[in-house]
Structures are given as structure tokens and as C-alpha cells.
Specification:
This is Rna helicase. This protein has 9 helices and 7 strands. The chain is an alpha/beta fold. A 7-stranded parallel sheet has the order 3-4-2-5-6-1-7, sandwiched between helices. β3, α5 and β4 form a beta-alpha-beta unit. It is globular and about 50 Å long. It starts with 11 loop residues before the first helix and ends in a 5-residue tail after the last strand. Bound molecules: adenosine-5'-diphosphate and magnesium ion. The site of adenosine-5'-diphosphate (ADP) has 13 residues, from α3.
């Protein structure tokens, strides 16, 4: 049977928002990951580009946000500015009914203005690692110490490569207790290692190979 967004334990306002943005049926990665994320598990989700990974993490985060809003609630890291803006846009559109404050922190924009945005305690920060690490090293207008979710979008591209130093600076600013959501087109050894490192129960979803 084809699942609907209501079958995934999402609140009715989120199901309504999916319809508003023209999304009717959840994709397989959404069907599989959303209920497990809502149960509080860490999640590693792998499926090819275009399979709807953004909503797979954005919907459960938005649902939890409504129940317990405080400070910066979720941090989404992604390797490029373009992806950061796309993710920020999806959060903004879906989160409109709850007046979601989402802040995109990428290179090439004014540091001072960004610092001011961060100081306003947005609910969601979407960032590229380099610029966020710059902010953490240069100012203290904001804190990531109470985030509930860390999302690594395109996790394979963020881990085990030239982002290592920046990612490590960022991880030091995060609370130990948090839910980790890693999404990627492929699962590599790096993701396997992270699976071992996290203390939480991890749900792993890998889209079946296409025939
Ligand atoms: P990925 O991160 O896996 O590459 P995205 O999350 O960027 O994919 O989604 C790709 C496109 O598919 C976006 O335009 C998004 O709005 C759309 N989309 C997401 N979920 C669904 C769905 N359940 N049904 C139809 N379209 C969807
Ligand atoms: Mg994506």
C-alpha cells in the first residue's frame, strides 16, 4: 500500500504543508527515515540525488520544534552555498505557518550581518562548514550548545576530506547529547565509522540499487 504523509506520524499541519508545496506521497527515504527520526534515533540515510532527502530530515525536525522551541534548535551542514540556500528555502516554505526563523550562513556574505542574524536565535541554522567555523572562532554572539539536531547533508562530501578541520571546530561547539542525522547519496566507510562513534541507536536506510 502506498503510504501517505499522515501514515508517518507527522502532525496534521505538516501534512497540510506538504500538500501546499505540491508534495503528495512520501518518497521511500521519507517513508523509511521519518518515523525512526521521530522516535529519537540517529539516522544514516542514503539515496541518490533527487530522492527527497531534505524533507526526510526537515519534516521531523519541524515537528519536534513545535513541541519544544528554544534557541538554535537544529544545525544543518552542507558542502556548498547552493545546497545551503536550497535547504533554507525548503525549511522556510514548510515552516511558514509556525513563523520559522531559518538562517543561512555561507561564505561570500557579510560576516557582521551574519553574526547579527545568528544573535537573534534562529530556530534553524543551515551552513557551509568554513563560514560557520569562522563565526565560531571569531565571535560569541550565538551558541550552538543547546541544539537538538545535527544534520550532515551530503555527509560523504563533508567527512574525511578537506572539511575535516572546520567540522572538528564545529563539533566542539555542539552538545554531546543530540540527534545525529546523516544523509548522503552513498554510504562509505566514513559513515560506518560514525555509526560506531555515536552513543545513540542508529537507524540505517540505504535505497536499493536500481535494476
Ligand atoms: P535530494 O536531497 O535527495 O537530492 P531533495 O530533497 O533536494 O533531494 O528533493 C529533490 C526535489 O524533490 C525537490 O524539488 C523536492 O521539493 C522534491 N520532493 C521532495 N520530496 C518529494 C515527494 N515526496 N514527492 C514529490 N517531490 C518531492
Ligand atoms: Mg540533498
Amino acid at each position: 500500500m502506498v503510504k501517505t504523509f499522515s501514515d508517518l506520524n507527522l502532525n496534521s499541519w505538516l501534512v497540510r504543508q506538504c500538500t501546499v508545496i505540491g508534495v503528495k506521497h512520501p518518497t521511500p527515504i521519507q517513508v523509511n527515515c521519518i518515523p525512526e527520526i521521530l522516535k529519537g534515533k540517529d539516522c544514516i540515510g542514503a539515496a541518490k540525488t533527487g530522492s527527497g532527502k531534505t524533507l526526510a530530515f526537515a519534516l521531523p525536525i519541524l515537528q519536534e520544534l513545535c513541541e519544544d522551541p528554544y534557541g538554535i534548535f537544529a544545525l544543518i551542514l552542507t558542502p556548498t552555498r547552493e545546497l545551503a540556500y536550497q535547504i533554507g528555502d525548503q525549511f522556510a516554505v514548510v515552516g511558514k505557518p509556525i513563523n520559522l526563523k531559518c538562517c543561512v550562513i555561507v561564505g561570500g556574505m557579510d560576516m557582521v550581518a551574519q553574526g547579527q542574524e545568528l544573535a537573534k536565535k534562529p530556530h534553524i541554522v543551515v551552513a557551509t562548514p568554513g563560514r560557520l567555523a569562522d563565526h565560531l572562532e571569531s565571535c560569541n554572539t550565538f551558541s550552538l550548545a543547546r541544539i537538538k539536531y545535527l544534520v550532515l547533508d551530503e555527509a560523504d562530501r563533508l567527512l574525511g576530506g578537506h572539511f575535516d578541520e572546520q567540522i572538528s571546530t564545529i563539533f566542539k561547539a555542539l552538545p554531546k547529547k543530540r540527534q545525529n542525522l546523516f544523509f548522503s547519496a552513498t554510504i562509505t566507510d566514513t559513515l560506518g565509522k560514525l555509526k560506531e562513534a555515536t552513543g545513540n541507536e542508529v537507524f540505517l536506510y540505504e535505497a536499493p540499487a536500481e535494476v
